[in-house]
Structures are given as structure tokens and as C-alpha cells.
Design a protein that fits this description.
With 154 residues, the chain is of the alpha/beta class. It is built from 5 helices and 5 strands; from the N terminus they run βαβαβαβαβα. The chain is globular, with a radius of gyration of 15 Å.
Amino acid sequence: MRLKLLWVGKTQESWVRTGIEEYAGRVRRYCPLEILEAREEKGAQAAAMRERECERLSKLLPKGARLVVLDERGEGMTSPEFAGFLSRSRDQGISDLVFAIGGAYGFTDSFRGQAFKAISLSRMTLTHQMVRVFLLEQIYRGFTIMNGEPYHHE
């Protein structure tokens, strides 16, 4: 199984980039990981920005990939439940599992409709920049849980 992370915009803060690099390196010990950025739209109404950003994200989706969107209205999971989701995806022979993080205004309904699953990392509102690190950390944690490694504590 290959993982792809799609998100809107460049990572602005150096400390966020450092976190992304740290956890991306850890995840790559378990499976191939590719991170793709779609250009952020600026200077338009929220709906127009969301539409253009989702068009760009759609162009980055591999054919036949299983799409998971990070969305505040998505399903909340514990880390062990998320590890189970990763494990089931791998065991079902999913070749490309894609996680998408939208821009400041989220996803269009049509892009969200393409997703196999919507996941919420928190009931709180998080910046789309920090979600990048949180998602990578949870993917890494999921793999350590799947492999019985001591990173996760119950």
C-alpha cells in the first residue's frame, strides 16, 4: 500500500515543516509516502476558492485510489481504531490510500462525495497547516500499533 497526502498550499512555518519531515521519515519506514501540494487560491469569495482548490486536488488523485478526506464533520476515531482502518486498507489490497487536507475553507460537496471516508482528527477547529503534522503523527502511530511497537501507550 502506498500513501499519498494531498493538501492545499505551501507549509508556511519552519517548525511545521520540521514536524512534517520528522513524521514523514518515520512513516516511510513502513510504506511509500508521497506528499503533494495543490496551489492555494487567493483573492476570491470562499466558495470560488474552495471550488478551484478542490479542482486542483482532484487532478492530483491517482486513478483507482481510495480517498479519505480530513473534515471536521468526519468520523472521530481513537488511535487504535485508526490503526485498524490502516490495517484493513492494507489487507484489502488498496494500492493507493490518499488523505486530503483542504484549504482554509475546506472541500466542496462534490470533492467530499468522492471520498471513501471522512475523518475528523478533533472536534476542535485546527489550522490546516498543523493538521499536516497531526495526521502524519497519527499515521506513524497507527503503523507502530499495527506492528506491536511500544510508541503508543494505552
